[in-house]
Amino acid sequence: MTTGSAKPLSFEEGWPILQEEAINKLIHLVEGHSSNHFTSQEYMRIYTTVYNMCDKNNRAGPEALKLYSQYKKTMEDYVSSKVLPSIQGKEDEMLLHELVKRWNNHKTMTRWLLRFFYYLERYLIPKMRLPSLQETAYLAFYELVYGEMNDRVRDTVISLIDREREGEQIDQALAKNVLDIYVEMDEDSMKCYAKDFEESMLKDTSIFYSTKASDWIASKSYEDYMLKVEECLKNEEGRIQSYLRYIRKIKLLEVVEYELLTVHASKLEEKKQINVAAA
């Protein structure tokens, strides 16, 4: 990509251009206040401004570091002022819908800024040994939104799963879209998914089936109980295929089997012997 004749710009000269012509317009687009997309001429002007703000010969100088720091602050300010307030007032499934919408908007904003700041990302950030622009943007969302909202989001998703286990129809696509966020925020390590969702999900699964096992052992015959166990395992596998695709399948099924079979092994054996004797 050609940038024309380079005209070095200080941070103080270049940032107001980026703020007005790139960031403000992009926020209006993402927030739905405008439908005017960037023209090729606008894109080139923004890209060239970034290029001219960076030191020549691909050196990671002070202007590049200022630009990176301001990019980080811009993402944090956007999340704090626009994203978080829109989510805080929502409850239950409306909370999940708003979270999914806001995450998709955040990804859109990040993609555009990556294009605008490509020169900084491609040539200078590696030399400065700093997190990539995408990592920085996603971290802002994680720390400012999930840092505050994760408990409510997680508990709402788990509540949906338990409602489905009770026989209620739920919005599986919504649950899947929320769980995708956990993964997309840290796709390489899956730490967000494992730490912020899976651990609690497995604990809830254990509690849910422990309660059900006690009820079913007392009320069902051996044959009916075993059919129920088979049904539960089949349903959990179905959930894994539909929207729990990131969870450790073996671990989830182990939890279900442990609560339904292992914990009550002696009682089940007694019921089985009674049935054999009665046959």
From TrEMBL:
GO MF annotation: an example: ubiquitin protein ligase binding
One GO process term, biological-process aspect: ubiquitin-dependent protein catabolic process
Database matches in InterPro entries: Cullin (IPR045093), Cullin_N (IPR001373), Cullin_repeat-like_dom_sf (IPR016159)
Pfam families: Cullin
Cullin N-terminal domain: residues covered: 23-272
Family, similarity comment: Belongs to the cullin family.
Protein name: Cullin-1 isoform X1
Gene (UniProt): LOC107785955
